[in-house]
Amino acid sequence: MKELEKRIQADGRVLGKDILKVDSFLNHQIDSQLMQDMGKEFARLFASQGVTKILTVEASGIAPAVMAGLALNVPVVFARKSKSRILTDDAFTADVYSYTKQTTKQIRVDKRFLIGDDRVLLIDDFLANGQALLGLKTIAEQANAGIVGAGIVIEKSFQPGRQNVLDAGLTNIHSLARIAAFEDGQVIFMNEEDEKVDC
Q: What Å distances lie between residue 113 and 54, 56, 77, 169, CA to CA?
């Protein structure tokens, strides 16, 4: 998605060898118009899949998921990272390790909101090591729901996330921006030929 790539180049900040900060438009301050455009693109990519529900993780996945849900006219469910006193114990759960924060959190979804008849689209803001997607996959499988694929806003293709989730059997992965490398503080995107191998 060229619009997203241009925004990453203009406002993204590369920190070290593997961190990209996009907090000015994606995961702290949100560019609503860009988010709406991304939601429409996810809807276009998965229009033929019969999606009945979108599943994401709080907090950064919520905005793109809601816009995709609006475009597809389906509900959005987000997995909580912390247990609330008002959240029932009757929940699907999965442990997710964060390489950025170096912590493991249990994510939870109330069993009322995912059922076996659902055709679930997973949405997340980043794909780096794949742990969040694998956690969402686990939750959808606990509900016996069908997974139609995964939509990612930004994929760091030089990290093992895509291969990790493919190895776990998750296919039909579409990333709106695929980063090949960070070089001298600049973002290098995968070229169109590389992007054609999208699974």
A: 11, 12, 7, 23
